[in-house]
Amino acid sequence: xxxSRKTAxxxxxxxxxxxxxxxxxxxxxxxxxxxSTATVSRCLNSPEQVTVRTRDRVLSVVKKLGYAPNxxxxxLAAKRTNTIGAxxxxxxxxxxxxxxxxxxxxxxxxxxxxxxxSSSYRPDLEEDQIRxxxxxxxxxxxxxxxxxxxxxxxxxxxxxxxxxxxxxQKEDRRHVAVGFNNHTAMKALAARVFDFGHEHIAxxxxxxxxxxxxxxxxxxxxxxxxxxxxxPQKVAVIETPYSVENGAEAMGELLSLQPxxxxxxxxxxxxxxxxxGQAQSLGLSVPGDVSVTGFDDIEIARIVRPALTTVxxxxxxxxxxxxxxxxGLLKGEEAPVEGPLxxxxxxxxxxxxxxxxxxxxxx
Amino acid sequence: xxxSRKTAxxxxxxxxxxxxxxxxxxxxxxxxxxxSTATVSRCLNSPEQVTVRTRDRVLSVVKKLGYAPNxxxxxLAAKRTNTIGAxxxxxxxxxxxxxxxxxxxxxxxxxxxxxxxSSSYRPDLEEDQIRxxxxxxxxxxxxxxxxxxxxxxxxxxxxxxxxxxxxxQKEDRRHVAVGFNNHTAMKALAARVFDFGHEHIAxxxxxxxxxxxxxxxxxxxxxxxxxxxxxPQKVAVIETPYSVENGAEAMGELLSLQPxxxxxxxxxxxxxxxxxGQAQSLGLSVPGDVSVTGFDDIEIARIVRPALTTVxxxxxxxxxxxxxxxxGLLKGEEAPVEGPLxxxxxxxxxxxxxxxxxxxxxx
DNA sequence: GTGATAAATGTAAGCGCTTACATTCAATCT
DNA sequence: AGATTGAATGTAAGCGCTTACATTTATCAC
Lengths: 363, 363
Prior knowledge:
2 copies of one chain form a homodimer. Helices cover about 40% and strands about 10% of the residues of chain A. Chain A contains 13 helices and 11 strands. In chain A, helix 10 (about 245-255) packs across helix 11 (about 270-280). Chains A and B meet through helix 4, helix 5, strand 2, helix 6 and helix 11 of A and helix 4, helix 5, strand 2, helix 6 and helix 11 of B. The structure holds a DNA duplex.
């Protein structure tokens, strides 16, 4: 194995690190293939610029040596990392998992890697995470929902870092968004609830402050109420963070109201599952005595008994489209201007007709 | 071709990128603070080496300029990224979410960032992901379970990349592991099932090939069976990937067996939930007609009715300890040699006494 | 063939940081 | 005072890659 180093001014001994192990470098490959580092680099990054002959030779050396480019060096020289950062509110339940998985899979097809951080629904933490992700070289970001401080947007704008907003969609054309219209979706569900004859409804929502999606959903219920000629003021709304326990607790409160609501619309499936369980624990039949609806259509919605009537959100499609939008933005393409993704109501068993028993309002 | 320009006095104009935006560099900070780049670097990385006076001045400039170190450059120069890679089988259900969240939180305390990839339970994909993560500069890895090809281990060893194995724990001291003993845990549960008088039991497991955790759990049931003087051969075992649907389907098969098992032990909660639903759909009472148990104790175990009797795995603690182990390894500390984490049986409502109806074995 | 043009390849200048080593400086000792 | 010492700081050499530009080689019209 003699390598004819024609020009080897490179006297430097490769300094092995700690245990004498060193990864092969571009130079090693170039030497072994008898070409320059530039050519090797081109074989890897823009193969069409290189003769087939050369390319094959180089690639076989790459394989033989087990060469893998050094991430830091590449990032430094190319000024991009091919990394996309995503900040989601939580990793702990399935709400974002499905969409994120699809997002990642689609990114991978474009040679992009996903870096995930979670904000625990806290705007201050979200800012930290954005900073961290940018510091780690994220070329672009996926953000959930529109609502965040102007300074965050300003910073992204100023850096020229592309981002797309997801899980929400509005007419607001200042931001690139791939999502669905939370208001429309929830309003349709509320209308359906009214179709079932319910007149006393209530809402369990995530905290609305700093969460436009939650706010849109609640507002949709109130708007639908008004459209039916009912008084939105009378719709009880409880805010509580997304969790089964909180859903149960909120349901407990709502069920002790006078008049007792006959339908409870929940801001997401997790709350709904809690509410459902609570109603049953209190000896009420769902939907016989009280109907419960969810939002998202995550797996658990199908599993509980009665299965949840909820709003199906095309998470996978959303993730996929978001990834495509980001890949496009990175290539300098125009922002896609597609309309919102369509949600649909999934009617299962937790929504039924309002009980026609006389309400105890008047005693 | 003489390029004897030995001293190229840094005349270079800072070339702004595309939109004229440029992040401040170390040099900018150094200039503004009237010190060398080395000092600025030290202020950031080992503040104790610098006078308080200097440090304060430098840090204030850092803040004023909004300086953030360039990740690639840092990685390249320091030969580490402070990034830990984790490859988990799936992101889509909650099995790994809780532990991973804790893992990440603890890593953050040590200044480390988590990069997650998922393998879809496929060894070949896992290898790809490992390669990807390493290429992206992961300083260390979190791996789930022991079982993977020797070449993967060899490669890690050869590169000198530290890793810790989690979600499993064995006497095998060749690898650093932070986990629990799947065999012990499942055997205890099986024993409990036998205590309830069950004699005809069955198992729904994840595919055992390439998954030591699944294998340990199944083997534990068989061992417990033998210890009770029953014939392990008669324990029906169905293998199917983790999902509610698959759990349901497998349950359907098991329930048509003669004699029909009176207790079905599932490899995890997701399968158990599916099994539970299926039994109920077929008009059987759980645990009246058939008992079902899970494994993991994820949220859904508490939610289904009857609530699942399952094995509680201290995922958070596991994640935390794994992170500490990795941080230690990275600092050159010895591998921790703690015993396995302790699991405990959570008795809820899906496991009950064996039905004392006469079995239809003899007709 | 010749020259012009295009395609393939090579050369080498950085990218922004860390760190070994050199230098300066102040405190302490003789 | 001068010598000694250790802490603080500066100098500058890379880290491994990409890419603008220079050079070589192939292609083609005439």
